[in-house]
Each structure stands twice: as C-alpha cells, then as structure tokens.
C-alpha cells in the first residue's frame, strides 16, 4: 500500500461515510444498471460482429433506425429553434400569464408518454380538432412520419427551453448596451453578441432532445401508423422482434440504440468541455 | 458539471432586463411562442379532458367504478411507493459520495448514473426480461425457487427503478457540490457524529432539492409506459398499471374511459408542475445550486 | 456562539426530519397495506387465461360465467384473469414465463411455438380437447364505411390501385395471418397457381398504409381514426364494430370465398402442475364446450361448434359463405408457419421494397 501516497484514489477528508456511500452507489448502480445492460450486450454480441452487422443491414431494421434517427434529428432541431424562441420570450419579455406559461413548459416532462400519445392521436387524426383542418389541405399528420415528428417535438421541447433559459438570464447587459452604443443594429447585436454564448446551451438542449427522441416509445406508437419502411420506429421494432421470438434481433437493435445513447451523452460532455474552455461556464 | 442536471426541470430566476427589441418584434415573438406552445402543449392537455367528459360527469366517473381500474391505480401507487424510496436512498448515498469527496473516475460515475435517462424505455424493459424471463439468464433459477419477477410486481418495480434511476441523484449532486463541505466539517469538529452531521446539517440544506427530485421521480414512476409494458404481461386486475390500463381501454373502443383514466395522470402531471412551481417560487434559492455555474 | 446556532438548526431540522420520516413511513405502510390487500385476493384460486386481441369482451363474460358455475358446483371461489394482445406477442410472453394456466390464441401455430420452446404444452395438444381443441371457429369478412363508397365486393377489389386496406402485422397478429392466408387462398383457388397467389398478396399489401401489431389496433385505426377504405377483419370483430360504433357508420361486406379461421385453446400443463391448478383449469377448458359457453360465443358473433346451443337469432346473423381450410391448400401447420411467416418466408419476400 505504499503506492497509495503516490497515487491516491481519493483525497483525504475529515468527512466520514465515503466507503459506505460509494460502495452502496456502486453496488446499486451495478445491480440495477450495469449488470442488465451487460447482459444485453453479451446476448447481442453472442452472434458475432458479422451477425450484428447483417441484422443492422436488414432493410427493415435499417429503415426503422433511419426513421428513428432522421425524424429525431429534425424534431430536435425544430424543438431547439422554438425552444430558443420560447426561452427568450419567457426570460426577456413581460406579458400577462408569463409565469403560468413558464410552468407549462415542463408539461411534456411530467405528462406520461402514453397519455401524450393518445391525446396527440386524437388531435391529429383526420377527424380530430387539428387533423380535420389539415385534411382538406392534403396534409396528413397522424399515422405518417409527420406524426412521429409532432410527438418528438412535444417530448423534446422542455429540454430545448430549459438548457438555454439560464444562459439567457445571465446575459450581461453591458455588452448589449456597448454593442448598441457602438452603432450595431439590434439584429447584429443579437446575432453577434447575444447568440454565441447561448450556443453551448442550445447544443446541449439539442443533444438531450435527440437522445430522448431516439428512444421514445409511448407517445409515438399511438400516432405513428407503424408501417414498416415508412413510419416504424426502432423501439417498436424491438417489441415486434420480441413478439416474433427473435430475441437476438431484438437485443441487437437494442444494443445499437444503446450505443447511440452513449454517443449522445458523450457529445453532451464534449460540448460542455468545449464551452467551458471557450466561455468559462457551462 | 451540468450534463443532465441542466435538463431536468430546474428553477430559473428570470430577470426582466431592459428590452431592446422594437415593440412590434416583441409582440410577434411572443405571439409565435405562445401559438407554438398552445398547439403543442395546451391543446393535447385540453383534449384529454374534453374526451374524458364527452359523456358528462356520469360517463367520467363510470370509468373509475371498474375493479380493473381500481387495481391499476393500486398497483401504480404500490410501484411508486417502492421505487421512489429506493431511488431516494440511492440519490442520497450517491450525492454524498460524489459531492463531498474528491476521487478518481468521478465523471465516469456521473455519466453512468445519467445513462438510464437516455436509454429507450423499451430497452429498459427488455434488459430485465433477458435476465429474469423464463428464457433469460437467471429466469429459470428464480422460477424453480418460486420467485416471480418478470410479469409480476418485482419486474415492474425494477423497470420503474431503472427508468427513474438518475432523478433524485442528479438533483442533489450539483446542490451538494454548491454547498461544499465547510458546514459539515464545522459540525464534525464540534464533536457531532457523521450520521448526526448528515441529519442536522446536510439534510436541512438539501431538503427542498430532495423534495424536488422526489417529485419528478414520482411523476415519472407513475407514468412510465414503455418499460413497464415490456415486463408487465398485461394481466387485467393484476399487472396493469394506470398507463397500461389506459392503453387497454383505448384498444377496447372505450375511449371515454381511456381518456378519463388518462386525465387522472394528467392531473398528476399538473399537480407536479404546480408543486414544482411553488417550490421554485418559495425556495428558489435553495434549489438553484448548480444552475448558476 | 456557533454551537448555539447549530443547536437551533439542529432542533429545527429534527422536527422537520420527523415529519419527513413520518411521511416516508406512511408511504411504506400504504404500500405494504396494498400488498397484503392484493395478497388476500390471491388466496382464492386464480386462473390466468392468456388470449389474443379481439376476445376481450368475450372472455370477460365467459370468465364470469365460469366463476359462477364453479361456485355453484364446488362452492369454491375462482377468479379468472385475462391478458390480451397480439397472438404472437402473447405466445412469446408465455414462452418468457408468464404463468398462463390456459392459452386461448388466435392461430394454432402460436400454441405450437409455446409447445416447442418450453415443453410446457405437449406436442399433441390438438387431440386433447374436442374438435381439434377448437371450441368455436370464425372467418374473415370485410368492414367498409357506410354506403360502401369504394364499391368493395370481393377480394379482387382489395388489390385495385388507390384502395387502402387496413390489416394488422402478420408477424405479430393472428388476425393478420388469417387475412394474409385468406387472400392467398382466394387467389390460389381462383387462378390455381402459387405464383399468381404471391402476386395477388404482393399487390394487396402494397395497398396497406398501416400495419398495427394486433387486430384490435387495426380496428381502432380503421374505425376510430378514420384510416383506409376496407378492413378485412375477424368476423366477430367486424360485428363488434357495428355494435360499438353504430350500424349507421359501417357495414359488413361478405366475400365470395373466405378462410375457416381456427383459434384454438390449450392447457399449459407445465404451469398448472407447478401452481396446482390443473383441476380448475381443465374444468375451465371443458366449460368452453358447454351449451352455456357456446351460446355466449354465438352472442359475441363467433361460430360455435355446437350450433344447437346457440340462440337462432345469433346464428342467423352470421353470413353464409364458402369457407376453405388453409391446411387443405398448404399442408400442415409447421409448413404453413414456416413458408409464410417465419424469417425469409413469403410475407418477408413480398414486403421488401
């Protein structure tokens, strides 16, 4: 144990309870999260890399992954744009009911996904409140990829708003004023001075909304239409593979999605490391 | 050090700074934002209640006369009553270890705690089926010993615990980091025991943040659909939680009842938002740790 | 000075902590109470019937009738629980360990799958109960919107360009498989060629905009969400839509030829022996063949095997049409499942785009 003085796992502290709390944390994390996920990856990799690749290259699986990815990216993008606008309006402007609207932004987070699913399906069905307006225009939302998009924007919105809101609140008035005094137009001030520091927040919000959207199930299946090659999402395909007794297929898709989750989390960490270097805060 | 803690709903102290856009631009922006929120947030909420009350009060309450609905409510309460305290204890232990000490691999640990947040609910259910299903790794052993996990309460609880895993911990870690260790060190120097220091110094400091985390954890636990759907087996009156019961009613053309039961969950969501807003308004400063750096 | 303020903080914290602990305690007691509550209800005999999608209304009534009968005969209380979903998904749940005492699925191959994967059902399950373990049969008819605006009369109308057909995914749903086999059998009988039949189902599935995982999902898509022009459906499901949504909104079209749909039942030997419920479970399955149950089947628009037990007005509602069995065209069930629906089978071939 002499190496302990050279390389210390933990810095010394007078505060007790490190061993028991960290031990419990690791045990609980291991049992609830790591062990089951390990079992998943083990099962999936039991068919070898070629097996995994050929499953992923199966046209229907590829189409579902593509749908999940593509629609999630677009939905996260749209949620980010409107999230920025909503965050801006809620933080910088005053209007009646602002506090109420602010509280409502978290609704998609608190509302169970199945409830959101049947509500959105009821709204956008050809005979629903919104659907009946769109039907004469030739726009079908429910049971098309557009329906998936609507559900995923709903899911992603709170992340997009809540990650930029604190940054907008922290914008320093002096910079803004200086820019205006120096003769920059308001638009240029926003574009050149105000927006860049918000970028890490926007990107984090985007990545979080994307990560949630890719895996989303409950709100989507009621409104998607679930047609292979068109509006079938990857999580649903996992459920379908299970129904077909194809455990390996299900675990392979699940593992691919797990890798996506990891990548998204990694991306978020990178964005934050970058923004710490560049702006000195997150 | 913000990761997901930035994403979980979190109080924002908004300050109305000098508005420098032109009035017209301002109102157009407000108009677009509100129209968007109306379309995407308010209408779905309204439609739940509108459909639920389509056949009047009697039709609404008829949905709750059914035995299956009551047992679904009972099961959901039971699952939340087990899953939330489990994650509460974990959240306290994890945030104590992470916030009060410096050790190697801390950021990896935090990332792993975040992981369940971005895993698809379907995958969250599937992994327990792989372990505890009859064809699973340990399934046959548990079954041989008469312990039911998949398609029974323990499986549903496990899936729920997984899905709500990071909620309390992620709320507490930034808060406890913000508060540092000086107060605890003072108490310890004065001779208090570790446990006593935790109870009398740390806990009072984090109680509102804790409540906040528990609130979010609970809302998610009661509303989880995908993960529970995979492990539940959908046995009427036995393993159907409220969200699963909503799906069943919906699939039985019983739309009024489906939306009536769904409105129960919508009310839970509204209550959560109201309590959350109250906490932010009343104890904003005690919650805001970590948000401002 | 510091210790003083610490003292106050400590006292305050103590009272709050007590409140929190009390709340946590209450939650636990509540949870435990609910657990014991559910424990006491499970003290009586419970049977679990894992069934397919459209039988929800049917088995609610059958289960109650059986419980009443059992009580009257033995004085014992039995509760029959039911679980419904796509037939394939339900079979998978049984394979994964859901403790079904009996399975009442939509198509024989799903029970075969359980027998093969778990050995909890013996391979010769079909011969254990009367009429090949089929207490009732059904068929596939078309449901269209009132007035039949697209003039759909027979299977040939379903492959016409511009017609939207709503049918569930044959991979997960028994109803979906009967629809597929019915269409295939119709074309095969008409043209006498397997290639022509393949072309026919290819054209038909090109007209499908939504593939739900269960028959019930498809019905909801068609009837509630207003999708598509025609719903090939279980006969009982089509009648149920008329009852639920009103005869002024939909009508049934009977094709010239359809399939004899055979939804079988079986005892899960492995589970009933482990649970000690064999006696009740066997009685439950026998009950399905009694006059009382047969009359209930007819009332829910299934085709009872004992027609004399049913009320004439219920039988009169069922249309008269020519039915074929798929076994007469394609041989045994192992081959039917493998050639059509397993990975790489006919359905996979035609749905590649």
TrEMBL record, chain A:
Query: The ABC transmembrane type-1 domain covers which part of the protein?
Result: 65-268
Q: What's the short name of a Pfam family annotated to this entry?
A: BPD_transp_1
Keyword Transmembrane tagged:
yes
Please indicate which superkingdom the organism of origin belongs to.
Bacteria
Q: What cellular component terms from Gene Ontology apply here?
A: plasma membrane
What are this entry's molecular-function GO terms? ABC-type sulfate transporter activity
Query: What compartments host this protein?
Result: Cell membrane
Q: Which CDD domains match?
A: TM_PBP2
| Gene3D superfamilies in the record | MetI-like
Chief localization class? membrane
Topological relation to the membrane, as annotated: Multi-pass membrane protein
- Transmembrane annotation, as ranges: 20-42, 63-89, 109-129, 141-161, 190-210, 217-240, 252-271
- The question of whether Zinc is a record keyword is answered with no
Q: Which UniProt keywords apply?
A: Membrane, Sulfate transport, Transmembrane, Transmembrane helix, Transport
Q: Which NCBIfam families match?
A: 3a0106s02 (TIGR00969), permease_CysT (TIGR02139)
Q: What does this protein do?
A: Part of the ABC transporter complex (TC 3.A.1.6.1) involved in sulfate/thiosulfate import.
Q: Which family does it belong to?
A: Belongs to the binding-protein-dependent transport system permease family. CysTW subfamily.
Q: How does it assemble?
A: The complex is composed of two ATP-binding proteins (CysA), two transmembrane proteins (CysT and CysW) and a solute-binding protein (CysP).
Q: What is this protein called?
A: Sulfate transport system permease protein CysT
UniProtKB/TrEMBL annotation, chain B:
Query: Gene Ontology terms, cellular component aspect?
Result: plasma membrane
Give residue ranges for domain ABC transmembrane type-1: 73-274
Q: What is its main location?
A: membrane
What sections of the protein cross the membrane?
24-50, 70-96, 108-131, 151-169, 255-275
**Membrane topology classification:** Multi-pass membrane protein
Question: Would you say which domain of life the source belongs to?
Answer: Bacteria
* Keyword vocabulary terms for this entry: Cell inner membrane, Cell membrane, Membrane, Sulfate transport, Transmembrane, Transmembrane helix, Transport
Task: Show the Gene3D superfamilies listed in the entry.
Answer: MetI-like (1.10.3720.10)
Gene Ontology MF terms in the entry: ABC-type sulfate transporter activity
Cell compartment(s), UniProt: Cell inner membrane
- Kindly state the subunit structure of this protein: The complex is composed of two ATP-binding proteins (CysA), two transmembrane proteins (CysT and CysW) and a solute-binding protein (CysP).
General function of this protein: Part of the ABC transporter complex CysAWTP (TC 3.A.1.6.1) involved in sulfate/thiosulfate import. Probably responsible for the translocation of the substrate across the membrane.
Please identify the protein, giving its name as recorded. Answer: Sulfate transport system permease protein CysW
Show the taxonomic lineage. Bacteria, Pseudomonadati, Pseudomonadota, Alphaproteobacteria, Hyphomicrobiales
